[in-house]
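INFO batch 0412 | record 1 of 1 | parsing
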Amino acid sequence: MPTGHPLLDGRTAGSPLVRAMRGERTRQRPVWFMRQAGRSLPEYRKLRAEADDTSMLAACLHPELATEITLQPVRRHGVDAAVFFSDIVIPLKLAGIDVEIVAGRGPVLADPIRSAEQVAALPELDPATLEPISQAVAGTVAELGGTPLIGFAGAPFTVASYLVEGGPSRDHLYTKAMMVGAPQVWDQLAGWVARTTAAFLRAQIMAGASAVQLFDSWAGHLSRSQYRIGAAPHSAAVFRAVADLPVPKVHFGVGTGELLADMHTVGADMVGVDHRVDLSDAADRLSGSVPLQGNIDPAMLFAGRKVLHRHTEEVLRSGAAAPGHVVNLGHGVPPNADPSVLTELVEFVHSNPDPAADD
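INFO prediction complete | emitting tokens
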């Protein structure tokens, strides 16, 4: 990595977040929220309304906009990390795939990829197209000082599923059918996604991200054997492609309690746990040796201060079973969440120092 990288020049290496991701317990419990930047913040909605091009993907590819949006929750909430404002289909867009974010639905592709011929015709990502990503990350890191930036990308199974289904799916019928009925086609498609994703993630690290998270939204729809055969090898390929870069690497999935051990062995340093699994149970499934991230139930943001605090205390106690714990939600911030509740939650977490801290 460049000598001016914040992990190498001392800015973020000693931060609570990076230390916790590397398996240390810190007095100040680090906390950030998935989807902390975006629709829940009035300043985000105002910025998007004032922008010349208000499409989601255009905002992700506008360096100044992406930087400002990434910084907004750090200023407002005082979280211990920024997470790069992007979307899991941005690498597809940069590679030339016709994909857009449709309000109320999510990423939608003009032409689903379901044949060997379509897979063979997929264009390889031109590294030059990653320049807006590098610029946005570098600009963000310059503003963050000692606060780490977390890079972000979607895992190959989830991104490939969008390609096959043509958009979000409840059952992933076409995806699973390809995995089983045309495994060579599936492996070629998921391999293409892995290469594209790895380039996207590597660009963020080289530009200054101090940690990265690979997000597998749909892996919870797979059995363990399906995951091991059709998903794990391609996630492992992404992690291998950035293994030479000494940043902590987090792997998170939704509904993946039965897959936690497999998600760790693909190359992650820390495993994110959604709100369906107690962190102490997750620690047991990982032999008590893997740092964990999570896992406040997002629904508790709407349950009132006392209930939220009581639930958060339970999460903090459960997180003590792991060698390192980064506090987060068990999924992303709901768009209708009250920002003041999140700000107060950060303050509450910070006001509860870890009694087992190394410092």
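INFO post-check: The mean pLDDT is 95.
INFO record closed
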